[in-house]
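Researcher: Can you fold this with NAP in place?
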Amino acid sequence: MRIGIIGVGNMAQALGGQWARAGHEVAFGARDASRAAAVARQLGAGARAVEHPAAAAGFGDAVLLAVPADQVERVVVAAAPPAGRVLIDCTNPIASGTLTLTTAGGPSMAERIAAAAPGTHVVKAFNVCHESVWRRTPPVFDGRPLAVPLCGDDPEALALVGRLATDLGAEPVPAGGLVRAGLLEAATALVIGLWFAGRDAQAVLPPLAYAGGQA
Ligand SMILES: NC(=O)c1ccc[n+]([C@@H]2O[C@H](COP(=O)([O-])OP(=O)(O)OC[C@H]3O[C@@H](n4cnc5c(N)ncnc54)[C@H](OP(=O)(O)O)[C@@H]3O)[C@@H](O)[C@H]2O)c1
């Protein structure tokens, strides 16, 4: 698969590096082309740099938006991905101090991205976990592959992003349409708050068999 990545920071390198190692062609586009070139050189086979974010948006089957949430709409408008492109939104619109949503009271960031790029297929994914988790090969904990919730409206786009989650050694979990992306963003803010407080977020949920009183 051909994957464009906008941004060359932590998430871009973590996910892009894994996908390049899995055999995909990954093209990094950054506002500083020399940084993209350096990252591509460091990652080696499968990774390349393109001259700017718009070239990454035009490169492949899917485009990972690995930029800060408060920049992502303007980055998408400037990059103008073509209609039909799958946009992977890993952003977390979370205020660093309060750990509240910067989108509170309005559309989710994923929906804002979809509005900024009409005709594309936005899938919210890979936003829950820290970049260090995505660098694990594979991200398996206590024998269980990490589950990756996906929110999006287009079945083919969801299938494509699901394959990319599988390529990491994780397990894609359909989590509803883009209308539910705001819940995923909010759930992530809650979970990050628990982690920052030193609490095990996983511990607040019972196993599936006990979730609805069946067991
Ligand atoms: N870090 C994590 O553990 C983690 C986990 C889950 C989700 N996320 C989400 O993933 C996204 C990326 O996070 P990150 O940790 O990878 O951030 P990062 O390391 O700070 O990298 C951000 C990248 O975005 C680029 N950028 C910033 N503003 C831009 C603009 N206006 N135009 C073009 N490029 C711009 C930066 O370019 P320069 O190098 O030129 O500054 C940099 O390459 C964020 O939305 C974050 O919420 C992060």
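Model: Folded with NAP in place. Residues 2-203 form a domain with the Rossmann fold fold (CATH 3.40.50.720).
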